[in-house]
Amino acid sequence: MEFLLELKENIRRIYSRFDKFIVPAIRFFIALVSFLMLNSNIGYMAKIKNPLIAIILSIVCAFLPSWFTIFILSIFMLLHLYAVSIEFTIVALCVILVMYLMFFRFSSKYGYLLIATVLLCWMKIPAAIPVVAALGFGMVTIVPVAFGVIIFSIIETASQYEAAITNASASDSVQQISYIAESFVSNKTVIVMVVAFSVTIIVVNCIKRLSINNSWLYAIIAGTVVELLFLIIGILAFDAKINILVTVLGAVLGVIVGYICKMLLFNVDFKRTEFVQYEDDEYYYYVKAVPKITIANTDVKVKQINARKTKKSSKTTDSYSDMTNDDDDDYIV
Predict the structure, then answer these.
(1) Segment holding 18, helix H or strand E
(2) How far apart (Å, rounded) are the C-alpha atoms in residues 49 and 34?
(3) DSSP three-state, residue 278
(4) Under a CB-based contact definition with an 8 Å cutoff, are residues 148 and 121 in contact?
(5) What pLDDT, in 10s, does the model give residues 278-302?
(6) Cys-Cys crosslink for 134: which of 127, 204, 271, 282, Cβ 3.0 to 4.6 Å?
(7) Number of domains into which the chain is organized
(8) Whole domain around residue 96: which residue ranges?
(9) Is there a domain that residue 277 lies in?
């Protein structure tokens, strides 16, 4: 625990000094990984698949807000989907427009959380995101997490739709759009994941706000259990295509990261809890005060003293003392 507190202080100190360089570097890295992920999964348009384009766009995104990065990534994704099918692009555009309406209305500050959800889905560990998101940001994270899952489902199934559309299963554009829209609505895996993650975020957010001791720890445990329970029910009852082993590993990772967040964001000493009562003209107030755990500053400044000066000063003092004693002897009668 002390190590995490020291790490927190060191990170805070480094960030306060070099934030002008750290923030653009992190934004550049996230944007670059996202562009490369899109190229590797749905890189159907050869003109924009060049890694140099991804690097240039990532540099631009490094100095702009998160919503601009999401906008550029959306355009980038739609261009790749356009090379697959115009109909598929229309359906994906409708989903993105709905996402923008809800995202900018409720959670425009959490754009990188949406990107992180897509990347974790790409790495097959999306179960790690809901508990951490609820602990760090609250109830509003339901919107970016849910749309992150939906956006990744569009990316993941693009090649499957390409194969289905090129076959004789759908002849004209209207039938193709109807086929794609129906496939989105009937995607049980996405529905189960969105419901499970949303309920998990609600449970974690409600429990962590309670005034009981160790509420954040209980929130992590309860949220993980609820998440696994909903996902297992979805696998058994709705035949959702979810790998249970990978899901458990993702949930365990979420517990570890959630506990680290708890230590860094809500590290308090419940043994020194105090209860305060006071009143005004209209109310009585009962306050529970829990002190934060802090570490003492370990920086020690050692002042070097020159040995020669000390020795010389000592000799001077002794000489002066002898002279004083001699003078005193002269005045003795």
Answers:
(1) helix 2-42
(2) 13
(3) strand
(4) yes
(5) 888 888 888 888 888 776 655 545 5
(6) 204
(7) 1
(8) 2-272
(9) no
One-character DSSP codes across 304-329: ---HHHHHHHHHHHHHHHHHHHHHHH
Domain membership flag for residue 333: no
Burial of residue 90 (CB within 10 Å: 0-12, 13-18, 19+) is middle
Please write down the long-range contacts of 93-100, taking CB distance under 8 Å and 24 or more positions apart: 95/150, 95/151, 95/154, 95/184, 96/151, 99/147, 99/150, 99/151
Query: Does 96 fall in a domain?
Result: yes
Q: How far apart are CA 182 and CA 179, in angstroms?
A: 5
What would the mean pLDDT of 83-99 be, rounded to a whole number? 84
Tell me if 144 is assigned to some domain: yes
Q: Report whether pLDDT(35) > 90.
A: yes
**Residue 318 pLDDT more than 80?**
no
Locate 93 and state its tokens.
């555009």
Banded pLDDT at 204 (limits 50, 70, 90): very high
Query: Crossing angle, helix 129-137 and helix 111-122, to 10 degrees?
Result: 170
Q: What is the DSSP letter of 293?
A: P
The pLDDT of residue 12 is above 60 = yes
**Global pTM?**
0.79
**CA atoms of 262 and 248, how far apart (whole Å):** 21
Kindly give, in sequence order, each residue whose CB lies less than 8 Å from that of residue 139, ignoring residues fewer than 6 positions away: 201, 202, 205
Q: Which residue(s) pair with 289 in the sheet? A: 274
User: Which amino acid is present at 156?
Assistant: E
